[in-house]
Design a protein that fits this description.
The complex is a heterodimer. By secondary structure, chain A is mostly helical. Chain A has one domain. Chain A contains 2 helices and no strands. Chain A is elongated and about 70 Å long. By secondary structure, chain B is α/β, with parallel strands linked by helices. In chain B, the strands form 4 sheets. A 7-stranded mixed β-sheet of chain B has the order 4-10-9-8-7-5-6, sandwiched between helices. In chain B, strands 2-3-13 form a 3-stranded mixed β-sheet. A 3-stranded antiparallel β-sheet of chain B has the order 12-15-14, covered by helices on one side. In chain B, helix 3 runs antiparallel to helix 12, helix 5 runs parallel beside helix 6 and helix 14 packs across helix 15. The longest helix of chain B has 26 residues. The chains are: A mainly alpha, B alpha/beta.
């Protein structure tokens, strides 16, 4: 069953995370604290990335078009 | 091909030793793990101090809270916050003879390893990969056991005196003559405890005004003996002959630190097999250096006697050297002979001196007679004097087991430290959670292993140490290897990058950064 092996794989990955960060050794309330801190940090990072990306995406794309446009202009003039 | 060290033709056989370097990612993740545990340790200490959580470890009494704190150093912090979490891998109670298979009493903990309760069940037939049972003499049946039982009924169990007073039995004399013959030295003396042999006899041999050159990774008994003696101690890098030679040269050229007088004695302390690394001492080079600079050699063969050499006579025979070149040959009876105690062998004048001046001879109770008989029988068995070839067969079986086990583990991809021929096999774990996980998973699969962590090893280099035995059959080793493979895949322990690191011939000093020369 592909779903079963995928689930096993995800569970194994989670076990590796537990071993590396030593949350394998923690008591349940410590695990709750640690995971909520981790999830909070990751969530904050994602939100910051989203917010920054949204703000900077517009100017970044404009710059990209400008470069490509000038390149096209150069190429066209060279061909001509 | 592993680099073969040929230093002026001193070695008659290839010396293959490797200590693969820690992969960078693994080291970083290990520090991450320790960092997380340290933070949680601080949190728990805070909660214990502010009485949010019940304090179950030892603390000072209320009246003593204003005194200098007793439990605030790193050792105690490590103990209550990190060691306690994985404590169930140690001090496991066994209830049978520690042979190739052992029975263990099951215990559970309901408060996260602060207290243990026994369920009453006995886990039977656990493959024992942790006991120092190199030749398989830990038996409760057979020639050794019968002889020991006979002597027990004849002499009793206690001696009730020291060697110098009324405790010198004829059995002790017989044992000492036999040990001297076994080692190829003039005379030997036996003591009741291996640790005490080192720590009580080094002070008798050296004192103030002498120099001790001790290997970096020497055992606690050697370190304690060296410190108790009052001599100056200098440490050379582990098994590094260039470092030793530099220290010897400096000692001869400069003499004692302030007065520049020559040292009264220079004693080099090395071990035959280092039990945490599995490395074998470079004995031909040490003896060559000792002869060149006219110093004395103290060789601690605790793990190598019985385990190395074609007839089990230790590291001296393994390299094909003359036992008379080693001034003081020390060893223990605990590991290969299935008994307890230690011995020192050497020239007759040395041993006669130790009989009078050693603290252990004067103050410690002498060895118990059944134990002495066990040693006598096992030494005779190894030498072949009991009329059978059991001893020889066991030594060969141990060598075969060692080579097979190490080869298979290396092929699987684990990082294994040490020499190819040493029966002590350290398998690197590195991360603290994996120490506890490895011990528990192996026990679930009915294999008992010893895992070692911080105070005994450097903090990131924790390991699992397998001690092979001649009593292990190939089937047992195959079962163990299968389970180790499984657990290695489960816990991702196969760190080896399979890059064959050649041993350096030139000095490994501050200007060398990597072991490989690209």
């Amino acid at each position: 069953m592909d779903v079963r092996s995928a689930k096993n794989y995800v569970f194994w990955l989670f076990c590796q995370f537990e071993l590396i960060t030593c949350s394998y050794l923690m008591e349940p309330w410590e695990k709750v604290l640690f995971y909520s801190f981790n999830v909070g940090m990751v969530g904050t990072l994602l939100y910051t990335a989203y917010a920054c990306a949204a703000a900077h995406a517009g100017p970044a794309l404009q710059l990209l078009w400008h470069c490509l446009g000038s390149q096209q202009g150069n190429a066209v003039s060279a061909v001509k | 091909i592993n680099h073969i060290v040929h230093n002026g033709g001193l070695y008659k056989r290839p010396f293959n030793e490797a200590f693969e370097e820690t992969p960078m990612l693994v080291a970083v993740l290990t520090y991450v793990g320790y960092g997380v545990l340290t933070l949680f340790g601080y949190l728990r200490d805070f909660m214990r101090q502010w009485k949010i959580e019940k304090c179950q470890n030892a603390t000072e009494r209320e009246e003593q809270k204003d005194f200098v704190p007793l439990y605030q150093d790193f050792e105690n912090f490590y103990n209550r916050n990190l060691y306690m979490r994985i404590r169930d891998s140690w001090n496991r109670p066994i209830c049978s003879v520690p042979g190739a298979k052992v029975d263990m009493m099951e215990r559970v903990s309901h408060d996260y390893n602060w207290t243990f309760t026994y369920t009453g069940r006995v886990i039977k037939d656990i493959i024992n990969m942790g006991s120092y049972n190199y030749l398989g003499f830990a038996q409760n049946a057979g020639a050794c056991q019968e002889a020991a039982a006979k002597v027990l009924s004849q002499y009793g169990a206690g001696v009730c005196s020291t060697r110098q007073e009324m405790g010198n039995l004829d059995k002790h004399e017989e044992l000492e003559k036999l040990v001297a013959r076994f080692l190829g030295v003039e005379s030997a003396m036996a003591y009741g405890m291996g640790f005490a042999t080192n720590s009580m006899n080094i002070p008798a041999l050296v004192g103030k005004g002498c120099l001790i050159l001790s290997d970096e990774l020497n055992h606690a008994s050697l370190v304690l003996g060296a410190r108790l003696s009052g001599a100056t101690i200098r440490i050379f890098k582990h098994n590094n002959m260039q470092s030793l030679e530099k220290l010897l040269k400096d000692a001869i050229v400069h003499g004692q630190p302030r007065t520049r007088r020559p040292w009264k004695k220079i004693l080099i302390l090395v071990e035959g097999i280092y039990s945490m690394e599995g490395s074998i001492v470079r004995l031909p080079e040490v003896i060559a250096l000792k002869k060149k600079y006219k110093s004395y050699l103290y060789l601690d063969e605790a793990h190598s006697i019985g385990a190395l050499g074609p007839s089990g006579r230790g590291v001296v025979e393994y390299f094909g050297l003359n036992p008379e070149d080693v001034d003081v040959m020390m060893g223990t009876f605990t590991k290969s002979f299935g008994a307890a105690g230690g011995y020192i062998g050497g020239k007759k004048e040395l041993i006669d001196y130790l009989r009078t001046y050693s603290h252990s001879a004067v103050y410690a109770t002498s060895m118990s007679p059944p134990v002495v008989e066990q040693i006598i029988t096992s030494v005779k068995c190894i030498m072949g004097e009991d009329g059978t070839t059991i001893g020889r067969a066991r030594v060969q079986q141990l060598a075969e087991n060692t080579r097979y086990f190490r080869r298979r583990l290396k092929e699987m991809g684990f990082i294994i430290y040490g020499n190819e021929d040493s029966p002590v096999v350290p398998l690197m774990l590195y991360m603290p959670a994996k120490i506890g996980a490895f011990g528990r998973e192996m026990l679930k699969r009915n294999i008992g292993v010893v895992v070692v962590g911080f105070p005994a090893t450097p903090i990131i280099e924790s390991r699992a140490r397998f001690c092979l035995s001649a009593a292990h059959t190939k089937e047992m080793l195959d079962t163990a290897l299968k389970e180790i493979n499984e657990v290695g895949d489960l816990l991702q322990l196969k760190y080896s990058r399979r890059r064959l690191v050649p041993l350096l011939d030139r000095p490994f000093d501050e200007t060398t950064y990597e072991e490989t020369e690209d």
